[in-house]
Hints:
Elements: H1 2-53, H2 61-84, H3 88-105, H4 107-122, E1 130-133, E2 136-143, E3 147-152, E4 157-161, H5 162-166, E5 170-172, E6 178-187, H6 193-206, E7 217-223, E8 228-237, H7 241-258
Antiparallel strand pairs: 1-2, 1-5, 2-3, 3-4, 6-8, 7-8
Helix pairs in contact: 1-2, 3-4, 6-7
Amino acid sequence: MEEQVNQITDLSAIAMEYAWEYGPKVVLAIITLVIGLWIIGMVSRGFEKVMKKRNFDPSLTPFLKTLLSALLKVMLFISVIGMVGIEVTSFIAILGAAGLAVGLALQGTLQNFAGGVIILLLRPFKVGDVIDAKGYMGTVKEIHIFYTIVNTFDKKVVYIPNGTLANSDMTNLSQEEDRRNEWKFGIAYGDDVDKAKTLLRKFIDEDERILKEPEPFIAVHSLGDSSVNLVVRTWSKAGDLWPVYFDMNEKVYKQFAKEGLNIPFPQMDVHVHNQK
């Protein structure tokens, strides 16, 4: 019994010794960590405000802000560990070995990081562009280290991994200032083709959103099973592309009928034979 009491006394003495030796260091390290994280947050927000104030590229702002915050936090944690009394060189060696193991386990995440760097260097798109990628079409809202945020036209927020965007097909619908529309309109056999062309030319000339150069194109595209198909190609500003497209469809539907031009549709004749 006396031996157990002596062991407890020795352990208490050792604990008190470590508490007196490392206690102040741990408390100071915790205070430094809390204050350091608060300062890093302030620095990150200030960095973002400066970049916005100087009209820096919006595509780079979230990426650089996140990268700066991560680097500062790593430096802070290394400093805090050194304050506790742990050898920083040994910790960095352990951190390197752990980083290698984590890197092998998180290959997809590292691929997304590399994809983010490639996107920001090669600039296939930027914040505000309309893109079509991985089955989603919408406006690029933000480009982060690991993913890109896209707002679709039906108000969905899509997070697309940067590795996927950097290594697969992606269509940028905002890169070119002018875009081309194309329609195919069918009229019935026996209808006046020249009259249809004249009407289509009239619709084009009346729409100021359609550019004169390149010159609009109208021609007979094909002779279908039940219709003579006309093709119409015009150019307009990217922002006017869809309004022009929908308005032309409506004009053709309303005016062709008034001018005696028939838009054919598939029909089936059914013959019923009575058998006695």
